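Page 47, continued from p. 46.
Same chain as before, 238 aa.
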Amino acid sequence: MNDDEYYLPELDRRYIFPSARDAEEGGLVAFGGDLNPQRILKAYQEGIFPWYNEGDSILWWSPNPRLVLFPEKFKVGKSFRRVLRNKGFEIYFDRDFETVISHCANVPRHGQEGTWLTDEMKKSYIELHHMGFAHSVETYYEGELMGGLYGLALGKVFFGESMFSFMSDASKVSLFALSSLCVEKSYDFIDCQVETPHMLNWGAELVERNVFLDLLEEALEKSADFGSWRDWSWQYRE
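Result:
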């Protein structure tokens, strides 16, 4: 093996991960293991998340750089303010987690065939929701669920997993509502994982992996909002 080759570890039954700081530049940390909720929680605490295609081995990632959104930096332009003011969206939390994750898995995405959100992965995140770690944001318009997102909350970090939208701006409204709530609840940042143009347009920024891991360690030391968010509410205010 050459000195510059990276040996990809295979996970065993123990919930132990290699250090994300030593991952290859592309972000791949390890493969194998399972999607037991306790393993997933351990992964997020280490700055690692699962992402793989159905039928393949489970792959565990910690990208470099990492995309994060500091919630107070969400970009709200004039046109989006008009949407928030006039569109009549209603926002809820944890009202329909299973429908949100199903829509995230099934909504077609440009340039993507199939889904990385497998049945096994959905089952694990639904269990994490029942355990009080995974949460959803739902955006309704005229009584219909038109957009939403889900992710995990640990310490003072929200780890965003996926979002969907059936109408213009619905997923953006969901993320803005989450960002506003994160400001109110003193969350340090929202982990957006990998770079996407729309997230950059909305205010997310890239940070070097070791910087992200340092920020994560600090945020995880802070007290968490454990349990259901169902009683939380949000309304747009100028």
